[in-house]
Write the structure tokens for this entry.
Amino acid sequence: MKPARSFASDNNAGIHPKVLEAITAANRGHAVGYGDDPYTKAAVRLFKQQFGNDIEVFFVFNGTAANCLGLKALTEPYHAVICAEAAHIYTDECGAPEKFTGCKLIPISTGDGKLTVESVGHAYHGIGDQHHVQPRVISITQATEMGTVYQPREVRELARFAHDRSMFLHMDGARIANAAASLELTLREATRELGVDVLSFGGTKNGGMGAEAVVFFDRRLAQDFLYVRKQGMQLASKMRYIAAQFEALLSDHLWRKNAEHANAMAALLEKELRKIQKVKIVYPVDANGVFAQIPRKAIAKLQQRYFFYVWNEEQSVVRWMCSFDTTEHDVKQFAKFVAQTLSGAA
Ligand SMILES: Cc1ncc(COP(=O)(O)O)c(C=O)c1O
């Protein structure tokens, strides 16, 4: 029998029971649509408690929309967005960021998913030249697609680089909870205080059902966002159900507990995998993902029992993600199966 939980993606996990309870609790009677309801107001209050009273926050259905619409609020079509080559906006959003912003995305190759001031500097050119797109946004992912986490200093440097050049720093925070937990920072310390201008705040991978938000740390940038969101087809009529999820995640530190747990399970998985000779961990395990190089011929065998994604076919690197509901038993069973399969015993 296949195990109930695998290591393919933190999106494959279900809904945290407390989030589901909050959805059920919101499912009483009627509530005004499109965000003019008590649940949305309460969730916005919680965001303000986390990030400061002077923010603007908008709920959307998914992370691709949070990224695309957040970037749209910062740009004109003749602008460019500088991002890592592995960035979700560049590789996994079907060109939606280009479609919705009209902007060119400038990908930068990185060893570990992280942009640096030096690497961004190479893409910053053609300024004031009418033949060139004008760089307007640096977009970073935190935690990165490779499971690494930018240190506060690294984010601050990128923010300074951007702001010194009239650019913005956008953060794809689909896993911002995992990053903040890993850095032992508050959500505000991990974002706003490092100079982030607009944050895609991920709730789904943290135990939500489909709850993402765009957070603006400078209200002026959000001036037209109500229209951008509606035109972007992301204005939820029954918004109370998204809001209720955030209410649960932002209450009693649930977001942090879930993220800390997922991170701890990834650390345990790394520890167990390091005992297996033929497994090579290829990136630092800073958050909830483990990337490993394994013998190519073992991949299909492993996938027969545990579905997961191959990250880099050429290099035979696979991605294993942990979630809020991954258990120590899951990790140990999986590591045992990997060891057996690689030794030819399974
Ligand atoms: C780094 C990152 N950003 C954004 C997303 C959001 O994607 P979706 O539009 O599927 O919610 C994901 C989901 O896999 C992700 O990994």
Observations:
- The CA atoms of residues 200 and 214 lie 5 Å apart.
- The longest helix spans residues 254-273.
- Residues 11, 62-64, 88, 141, 145, 172, 174, 204 surround pyridoxal-5'-phosphate (CB under 6 Å).
- The chain has a mean pLDDT of 97.
